[in-house]
C-alpha cells in the first residue's frame, strides 16, 4: 500500500500546487514545420502568480538543440525577426507569446519525438517545465 | 420671420441635409478597406527567375491571370507561414462565396541563397495546390524588387551559421497583364481580402 499512497500524495501535491506555482504556462501551441523544414515556433501564455516581476533568460527543450526567444515585428512595412535576450512577466500578469510577436524558436530537432519539454530559466534557476505534444513533420 | 418659423426652417433644412447624406451613403460604391489600387498599374521590369518546376519566371509569367504576390523565405517560421495562410484562407472563402476569378498565390524568395526551387515549391504547396514558388539569382531578384519597392536585407549569421532576412511585409496584386496593380501593405487580415478582392477583380 505504500507505493500507491505515495503516488496519490505526489499527484495531490502536483495538482494542489498548480495554481500557486510562481509561473504557469497555458494554451501551448507548437507549430507544424512546413515540408522540408524542421524548425518550429512555440506560442503560449505565461502567467506570473507572484508579486514580483519574473524574467526568463533562457529556454531549453529535450527535443531541440537550438531554442531561442525571438520577436517578430512589422515596422514601416518591414517584417523583422530578432532574438531577444529576456522575457519579462510583470507581477501578477499574463503575457502572450503569439504569431507575429514574441515566440520561442525551436531549431535543430534532436530526433523524431511525439512530445517535447520546454524549460524556462532565469539564468540557472529553473522557473517552469512543461511538456507539449509534437505534431509529426508533414510529408 | 418669427422664432417659430425660423426653427421650422432650420429643422426642415437639417432633415433635408440628413436625407441627402443617407442617399449619398447608400449609393456610394463600396471602397476597399485594405487595398491601395495604384493610380496607374506598373509594368514589371525585365528579370529572369525560376519556379518550383524549373521553369523560367519572367514578367510574362504573370500574364493571363491575377496573382497575389508575397516576398518571404522558407526558413521564416513565424510571419511568412502566417501571411501565406491568411492568403490561402481568403482564397478559400472567396471560392466558397462563389467568386469566380481567384488570384494565384505566389511566394518569391528573398533568400535565394538557401531556397532551392524544390524547397520553395514544397513550402508554397503546403498552403494550397497551384501556388507558385519563385527563387533564383540574387541579382535577378533585385531587378524585380527594386522596381516594386520591395525591401529585403539578409541579417548577419549567428554562431550556428543560421540567419534571417528582413523583408517587406506587403502583399502585391499583379493584374492579368502582368503589372503591379494593387498594394496590400498590411497588417494582413482575411476579412479585408475577402471584402476587397471582389471590388478589384
Question: What structural keywords apply?
Answer:
heterodimer, A: 139 residues, mainly beta, six-stranded antiparallel sheet, 1 helix, globular, B: 201 residues, alpha+beta, eight-stranded mixed sheet, 5 helices, 10 strands
Assign the structural class of chain A, choosing from mainly alpha, mainly beta, alpha/beta, alpha+beta, or little secondary structure: mainly beta
Shape of chain A: globular
The Rg value of chain B, from CA coordinates, equals: 23 Å
Main beta sheet strand tally, sense and closure of chain A: 6 strands, antiparallel
Fraction of residues in H or I helices of chain A: 10-25%
Order of helix and strand elements from N to C terminus of chain A = HEEEEEEEEEEE
DSSP, total strands of chain A = 11
Approximate shape of chain B: elongated
State mean pLDDT of chain B (0 to 100 scale).
90
Distance between the termini of chain B: 56 Å
Short description:
The complex is a heterodimer of chains A (139) and B (201). Chain A is mostly beta strands and 139 residues long.
Task: Provide structural commentary.
- The complex is a heterodimer of chains A (139) and B (201).
- With 139 residues, chain A is mainly beta.
- In chain A, 12% of the residues lie in helices and 53% in strands.
- Residues 1-18 of chain A have low confidence and may be disordered.
- Chain B contains five helices and ten strands; from the N terminus they run H-E-E-E-E-H-E-H-E-H-E-E-E-E-H.
- In chain B, helix 3 links the parallel strand 5 (104-109) and strand 6.
- The termini of chain B are far apart.
- Chain A binds chain B through residues 31, 33-37, 39-41, 66, 70, 72, 74, 77-83, 99-100, 103, 105, 107-108, 138, and chain B through 74-79, 81-82, 118-119, 122-123, 125-126, 151, 158, 160, 162, 164, 166-170, 185-187.
- Strand 6 of chain A pairs antiparallel with strand 8 (165-168) of chain B.
